[in-house]
Structure to design on (671 residues):
């Protein structure tokens, strides 16, 4: 039997190979299409059961298999599997984009919507019907003839172009290496970073120290290495990914924007942003842009002060004739300034964050707050030896969901950190992945504090999926508005800064000691160091996202890279070099047909929500099972079964307050 057709709960990753992909996907598309056709051709009285219920479940098996194929390509790719993955993407894209264009299906949905049965619906079922009708219209159900064919062609090409974009970024990232054989050139690097580079070289049978553009390697160099020429080289290489040779994404990114704009216009929207945001909390691009502009105005004065202070700090170190700061200098001098101001070096924290203890502590935390149990289950088929499998059970012992974890970088794995869903149950099945600092020699994986926040963040998404309790599959879990989806993930990061929470997992890997009080205080004091720069960086991505999807015109505005670089420059602490082409590796925006395109503002939008929502835990206790129970019941369990603004108000009793974010970041007072 083709393992991609196996519908057992646990996925047989050990049996799936490239040869299984096309036959399975072809069969499952056919089966799903037959189910949709059956709904359309049904003769008899329309009911929720024979129309909406059937529609909700029609693609379940295909969803799971397509997610599995997408996942393997992301974490354990091979040339053969990539070819198989790419071969089925057009058919998958055409099938899903064709659902709202299925004339008979659209007729069936409208027929049911006009019945007395539909008028009597309440709760999630009523919401599902309304959202389905709205979604069909927004995705072209009312288009006819040539316009409908044009939309189908746009969607298929979007899948192809975004897939190629993502591949180019992965390949460009893996193509670079810098090998240093003179240890004196490693001055400034922490021992952990040197050991990692040495181990990386050893795995390649290379003498010396090997540095790559993977996050653990790249960030260590940019933060600590004294040799500015090496920092510059890595900076330029990192920000030039996707801009050279066969892996050049110039034409691809421009074409993706053209396709998105054409799709929006075809569907009656002035731009892609308004198409995407109609069903989100912001509702349109202008509202989201106003939100970003408001935060920018409240941040810019602090931003300018921070940058003046950093330039003065360099002159203090190197004299009045010190050179102006370059982009590859910012992280380096910022770290030196932070150490001086707060006597705090993040590397000192690493021994207190061994991976396994961080995970067990995080599980203990959520068990107390949300009244669940998380336990590892051994002997489950996985895609790599680093992968582990866990079960989440309710206090009663009932299984709520399970998930896979895969936290270390590999050349066969894409960068970044993410959560995804394989199956919407219950029980639910999902995964969390990252590219964190791996074990070195006989030492366990020792994480940075930022790594810890990343794990908590992705686990928040996972909880949103696995604690979902919604009767409509399409409204369950993380299937919510994208400017709401980051609330459950980002709120989890708050516990990484609380002493009582840290004591659950932040313990020295050799002695078991908790973080000393003086080190904890230094860490807390340094938390808001250059927070305006961090905020402006996130805002810059939101602004460039909307500029590309609302205003950019190649004929008028010229080269996309130069256009985007000019916008990013307004938010940069140093002058960006002419070869800065970060947008051509911006996978959040260009690695799938929609992803975070016209949605990058969501991170900041949800940051306001999470900062504000966490004030309830602050007031009533960070381990409060009462508040945790409410958050679980009113946010995590609800999925998209109610309007997200209403869900937020049900938990907080009011609308969100932006000042909560400004206060947390130390930006509430006038600069």
């Amino acid at each position: 039997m083709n393992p991609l057709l196996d519908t057992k709960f646990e996925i047989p990753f050990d049996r799936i190979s490239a040869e299984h992909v096309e036959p399975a996907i072809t069969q499952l598309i056919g089966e799903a299409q037959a189910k949709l056709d059956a709904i359309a051709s049904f003769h008899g009285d329309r009911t929720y059961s024979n129309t909406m219920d059937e529609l909700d479940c029609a693609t379940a098996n295909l969803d799971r298999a397509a997610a599995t194929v997408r996942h393997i390509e992301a974490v354990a790719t091979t040339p053969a599997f990539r070819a198989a993955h790419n071969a089925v993407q057009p058919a998958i894209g055409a099938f899903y984009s064709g659902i709202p264009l299925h004339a008979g299906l659209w007729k069936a949905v409208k027929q049911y919507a006009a019945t007395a049965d539909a008028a009597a619906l309440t709760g999630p079922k009523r919401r599902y019907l309304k959202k389905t009708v709205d979604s069909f219209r927004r995705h072209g159900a009312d288009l006819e003839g040539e316009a409908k064919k044009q939309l189908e062609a746009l969607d298929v090409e979007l899948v192809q172009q975004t897939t190629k974009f993502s591949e180019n970024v992965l390949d460009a990232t893996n193509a670079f290496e810098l090998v240093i054989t003179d240890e004196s050139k490693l001055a400034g690097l922490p021992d952990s970073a040197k050991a990692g580079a040495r181990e990386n070289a050893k795995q390649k049978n290379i003498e010396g120290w090997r540095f790559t553009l993977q996050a653990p390697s790249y960030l260590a160099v940019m933060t600590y290495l004294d040799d500015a020429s090496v920092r510059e080289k890595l900076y330029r290489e990192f920000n030039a990914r996707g801009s050279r040779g066969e892996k050049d994404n110039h034409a691809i990114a421009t074409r993706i924007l053209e396709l998105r704009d054409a799709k929006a216009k075809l569907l009656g929207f002035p731009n892609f942003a308004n198409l995407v945001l109609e069903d989100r909390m912001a509702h349109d691009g202008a509202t989201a842009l106003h939100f970003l502009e408001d935060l920018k105005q409240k941040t810019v004065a602090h931003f300018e002060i921070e940058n003046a202070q950093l330039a003065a700090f360099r002159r203090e170190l190197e004299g009045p004739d010190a050179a102006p700061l370059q982009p590859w200098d910012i992280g380096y001098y910022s770290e030196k300034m932070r150490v001086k101001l707060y006597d705090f070096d993040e590397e000192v924290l690493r021994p207190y964050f061994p991976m396994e203890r961080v995970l067990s502590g995080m599980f203990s935390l959520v068990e107390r707050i949300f009244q669940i149990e998380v336990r590892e289950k051994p002997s489950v088929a996985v895609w790599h030896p680093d992968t582990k499998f866990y079960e989440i059970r309710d206090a009663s012992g009932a299984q709520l969901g399970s998930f896979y974890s895969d936290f270390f970088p590999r050349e066969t794995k894409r960068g970044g950190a993410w959560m995804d869903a394989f199956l919407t149950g219950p029980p639910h099945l999902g995964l969390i992945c990252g590219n964190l600092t791996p074990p070195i020699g006989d030492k366990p994986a020792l994480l940075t504090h930022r790594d810890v926040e990343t794990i908590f963040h992705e686990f928040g998404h996972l909880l949103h999926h696995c604690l979902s309790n919604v009767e409509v599959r399409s409204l369950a879990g993380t299937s919510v508005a994208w400017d709401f989806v980051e609330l459950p993930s980002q709120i989890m990061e708050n516990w990484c800064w609380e002493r009582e929470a840290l004591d659950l997992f932040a313990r020295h890997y050799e002695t078991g000691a908790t973080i000393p009080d003086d080190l904890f205080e230094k860490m807390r004091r340094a938390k808001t160091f250059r927070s305006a720069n961090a905020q402006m960086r996130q805002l810059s991505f939101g602004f460039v996202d909307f500029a590309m999807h609302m205003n950019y015109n190649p004929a008028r505005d010229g080269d996309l890279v130069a256009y985007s670089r000019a916008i990013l420059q307004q938010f940069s602490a140093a002058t960006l070099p002419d070869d800065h082409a970060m947008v051509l590796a911006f996978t959040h925006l260009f690695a799938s047909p929609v992803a975070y395109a016209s949605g990058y503002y969501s991170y900041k939008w949800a940051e306001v929500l999470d900062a504000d929502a966490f004030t309830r835990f602050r007031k009533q206790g960070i381990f409060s099972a009462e508040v945790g129970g409410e958050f679980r019941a009113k946010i995590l369990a609800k999925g998209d079964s109610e309007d997200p603004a209403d869900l937020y108000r049900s938990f907080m009793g009011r609308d969100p307050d932006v000042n909560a974010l400004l206060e947390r970041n130390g930006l509430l007072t006038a600069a």
Q: What stands out?
A: The mean pLDDT is 96. The first helix runs from residue 18 to 41. Residues 159 and 593 are 6 Å apart (CA to CA). Residues 351-525+603-664 form a domain with the Neurolysin; domain 3 fold (CATH 1.10.1370.40).
